[in-house]
């Protein structure tokens, strides 16, 4: 009875990283970041229903989602490098951040700092072509449109690309060490 009345917050609902200017919502008991609940250059609203449960791309979870974001950023960064060249690295801004901002500017044809449906729809078709990740690509732009106004602002774009990617668990690569076969010294070929 007492435990149900007592709620201990071990972590603040909003966590911020000063140098990157990002803030995000966390689970107050575990400190785990909530996917899709971060904001660039401001504090997100961590009190609503979305903050408690996080947001997901419909039909795109787990390994599928991780693979989708790997492919998304591989294509964004390679397209950005091909178009702009690597150039010099501008301080603490990562290639992912610069590529995401560049792609937003490329998609924003009328330069109103919003991606309207007619601007993002061709890109959605491109994302749907990712092998075995059709649902992820099909629903990605809707996932980015947090306020469901059919327009994606730069904050929404950065939130659904950079922050969702950053909050996903990173798979540890399996190291395949070259080892000498132990039987080479024991076994002798027959003559």
How would you characterize the overall build of this protein?
- With 191 residues, this protein is of the alpha+beta class.
- It has two domains: 7-55, no CATH class; 57-169.
- Helices cover 43% and strands 12% of the residues.
- The chain is built from seven helices and five strands, in the order αβββαααβααβα.
- The strands form two sheets. The chain has a three-stranded antiparallel beta sheet. Strands 4-5 form a two-stranded antiparallel sheet.
- Residues 1-7 and 170-175 have low confidence and may be disordered.
List the helices and strands and how they pair.
Layout (H helix, E strand, L loop, with lengths): L1 H4 L8 E4 L4 E5 L6 E8 L8 H5 L8 H23 L10 H13 L6 E3 H12 L5 H11 L6 E3 H14 L24
Antiparallel strand pairs: 1-2, 2-3, 4-5
Helix pairs in contact: 3-4, 4-7, 5-6
Organism: Parascaris univalens
Protein name: Thyroglobulin type-1 domain-containing protein
GO molecular function, one term: calcium ion binding
Gross morphology: extended
Q: Low-confidence parts lasting 5 or more residues at pLDDT below 50?
A: 1-7, 170-175
Number of domains: 2
SSE ordering:
HEEEHHHEHHEH
Number of helices: 7
Q: Got a strand count?
A: 5
Average pLDDT reading: 77
For the sheet with most strands, the description reads: 3 strands, antiparallel
Helix content: 40-55%
Instruction: Tell me the radius of gyration.
Output: 22 Å
End-to-end C-alpha gap: 81 Å
Secondary-structure-derived class: alpha+beta
Briefly say what this structure is.
The protein is an alpha+beta fold. Helices cover 43% and strands 12% of the residues. InterPro entries: Dev_reg/Prot_inhib, EF-hand-dom_pair, EF_Hand_1_Ca_BS, SPARC/Testican_Ca-bd-dom, Thyroglobulin_1, Thyroglobulin_1_sf.
């Amino acid at each position: 009875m007492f435990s149900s009345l007592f709620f201990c917050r071990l972590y603040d609902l909003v966590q911020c990283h000063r140098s990157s200017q990002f803030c995000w919502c966390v689970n107050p008991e575990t400190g785990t970041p909530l996917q899709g609940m971060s904001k660039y250059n401001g504090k997100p609203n961590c009190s609503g229903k979305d903050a408690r449960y996080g947001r997901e791309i419909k039909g795109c979870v787990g390994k599928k989602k991780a693979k989708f974001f790997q492919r998304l950023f591989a294509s964004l960064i390679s397209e950005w490098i091909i178009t702009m060249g690597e150039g010099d690295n501008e301080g603490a801004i990562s290639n992912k951040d610069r590529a995401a901002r560049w792609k937003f500017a490329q998609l924003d044809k009328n330069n109103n700092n919003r991606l309207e449906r007619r601007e993002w729809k061709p890109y959605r078709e491109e994302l749907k072509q990712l092998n075995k990740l059709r649902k992820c690509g099909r629903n990605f732009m809707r996932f980015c449109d947090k306020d469901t106004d059919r327009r994606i602002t730069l904050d929404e774009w950065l939130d659904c690309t950079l922050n969702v990617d950053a909050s996903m668990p990173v798979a540890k690569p399996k190291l395949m060490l070259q080892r000498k076969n132990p039987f080479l010294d024991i076994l002798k070929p027959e003559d």
